[in-house]
Structure formats: C-alpha cells, structure tokens
Specification:
alpha+beta; Heat Shock Protein 90; 8 helices; 20% strand
Length: 357
C-alpha cells in the first residue's frame, strides 16, 4: 500500500513530460484492496475497490473513515508543501480468507478426529452387540436339547403316573424353560409387534414373580383407572404395539433386579399409568440405590454389582424397550441407601391427550 500511495502521489505530481505508465500499472494492479484517499480534513476524495451504497454516501464514508482512523495509521501523501492527503485501506477478501484458513484447517482436523473416534466407539459397541446377540442365540440353542428331553420324560411319566399331583407343576416349569429359550432366540431378530395390553403384561409378570420371590419382600401393583378416551374406547388406552413375551421378560428382569438390590427383603412397587399419549410403568424398590453418575452405566452390557452374573439383564431390557419397541427405559430417580425407580415409557395406540398423573 505504501508503494501504491507513492505511485498515486507521483501520478498527481506528473507533468506532460513524465512517463506515467509505471505509476498507472501499479495503481491498476490493485483490484482487491479497498482504498480511501482523503484530504487533510479526512473527507473522501477518491476510492478504489469500494462498494458504495446508493444512498447516504457521505454518511457511509464518514463512518468508514472514523473506524479506520481508530484501527490504523493512514499513509501520508504530501502532494505539495501546503497540501496533505491521507490513504486508508482495508483487508482484501483474500486476506480475510487466509486469516480464517488455519481455523478452518483446525476444524477439518478436529472433524476427522471426531469421525475416527465415533467410528471406533461404534465399532466397539457393534462388536459388543454381536457378542451378546450371539451369546443369547447360543444359549437358546443349547437349551433346546435338554428341554426336548424333559418333554419326552414328562410324557413318559404321564403314561405311567397319570394321577401324580406334581406333573402339572413339572409341565409348567418346562413350559417356562421353553419360554426362556424363545426369549433368548428372539434377541437380535426382528420382533413381531402386535396390539398388547400393558396392564395384562404387567399383571401376568407380577403374578408369576410374586410366587417366586421371598415372603420377606412385599410386592404391590397399582394400575391407574383409565381416563375415558374421546371416542369412548377406554380398553385401548393401555394398548401398545409390543412383543408381549419380550416385554414380560423386561418386567420380570426389573423385578429380579429390584430383589437383588434389596438383598432379599424390602418393598417393590409396580405402577402403571397414562400420561398424555404415553403409557408409563414405574418399578420402585427400597434397595441400595444408584449413584447419579451410574444412571447410564447400569445399562451397559457386562455391568453388574453382584459377585455372580453376566450383567446382561438391564442391557437386554434397554435393547428390548428402545430398539424393538421404540420406547424409553431409564433411572427415573434413585437415592443411595433408600431405593430406586426405573421407568419405562411406551407409546399408546390411542392418543387421548388426557393425563392420569
């Protein structure tokens, strides 16, 4: 810009015998840098590469020169001993872009790093999922042979001891084993979702677990009375699209988890309610509680506080509720030493807009 200013001064001072081609070429070479030439009173007398507004030109120049005077020392151009002019200039678009380039480059590098980290984490999680899915399917496969054998022995006992009072109980337990194997085999497969009443799922799971939990554990089931739907179909308020056997598995796992957290004695409460278009199931216990920082960690595969166990229960619950049924399961609240509430949220087939809570 100093060279450009000197060329401008020489061009102004040139007479008819002066070769101005060099000065002109220097001046014309500036096609990007905005330049303002002012008189001694800082009134603009010449501009170059400046986009001037169609209105309020004088105000535009005045504001621009005032700002430039605060940020830079002007280049002085003494045309004569009595005449002083000043040249102000701004950064070109190219210089602005070059100034931003390191930040853009850093952003690109960080983006690549984030992409790589995301890929590694996703690959690790996918590998874990494949391991757990493979494990559940292998478990179902391994259970198939002894279950078939038990069914054969049961039929033999029925023919030899048809009046034995224990046979119905044995048949019930074998059916239960078959249900467990079926549940494991469904993990990793596309579930079959059909209209199901959440109340019935919870009630059947509650009854089944009640007979298998110690009498030292008090269990309570509360189901809010459904609000009347706009079309009068109260029976559908607690209906959702679900794979009933898998959802029963979730409820049973939460109850088992609550029993383990209480060391065999305490209180477990199941509460089914509607909130707008959502069906909510709360499973509350009076167990050890969970630290807030572990609210998400408890759902990770392999996480367990027991000396024995695979740490799959809550992980499978999360997969079944969120991936298969599009719902949510989370630690609603917990106090260490007092207890925990796990909450499941499912979408109702009948959106009423009426809330029961």
């Amino acid at each position: 810009m100093a060279v450009w200013a000197e060329a401008t001064r020489q061009l102004v001072l040139a007479d008819e015998n002066t070769d101005i081609s060099l000065f002109s070429s220097i001046i014309e070479a500036n096609t990007t840098i905005p330049v303002y030439m002012t008189d001694a009173d800082y009134h603009v007398i010449l501009t170059r590469n400046v986009q001037v507004p169609k209105q309020n030109v004088e105000a535009f120049y005045e504001k621009k020169i005032a700002r430039l005077r605060e940020t830079q020392e002007p280049i002085e151009v003494r045309v004569s001993p009595q005449l002083m002019q000043y040249i102000f200039y701004e950064e070109s678009n190219l210089l602005r872009q070059l100034r931003l380039f390191p930040w853009v480059q850093m952003l690109v590098v960080l983006s690549f790093m984030a992409l790589i980290i995301t890929y590694i984490i996703t690959s690790y999680r996918n590998e874990q999922n494949r391991v757990w899915v493979g494990l559940t399917k292998e478990t179902a496969h391994q259970l198939g042979t002894p279950i078939s054998s038990l069914n054969g022995w049961l039929e033999l006992m029925r023919t030899r001891y048809p009046d034995d009072e224990l046979l119905p109980d044995i048949a019930t337990d074998i059916s239960r084993l078959q249900l467990v194997a079926e549940r494991f085999s469904r993990i990793g497969s596309t579930p079959t979702l059909q209209p199901a009443d959440v109340r019935q799922i919870v009630e059947e799971s509650f009854v089944y677990m009640r007979t298998r939990v110690s009498n030292k554990v008090q269990m309570e089931l509360k189901i809010d009375e459904p609000a009347t739907a706009a079309n009068g179909q109260t029976s559908a308020i607690y209906t959702t699209m679900a794979d009933a056997p898998l959802m029963k598995w979730v409820v049973e796992n939460l109850i088992k988890n609550a029993v383990d957290a209480m060391d065999g004695h305490g209180w477990i409460g199941l509460h089914v309610q509607r909130n707008g278009a959502s069906i909510i199931l709360d499973v509350t216990d009076t167990g050890r509680g969970i630290e807030r920082k572990r609210y998400e960690q408890v759902f990770h595969p392999g996480y367990t506080t027991k000396t024995r166990g695979w740490g799959l229960g809550l992980s499978l619950c999360k997969r079944i509720v969120e991936e298969y049924h599009g719902g949510k399961i989370f630690v609603h609240q917990s106090v260490v030493g007092k207890g925990t509430t796990f909450r499941i949220v499912l979408s109702s087939m009948l959106a009423t807009g009426a809330a029961t809570d």
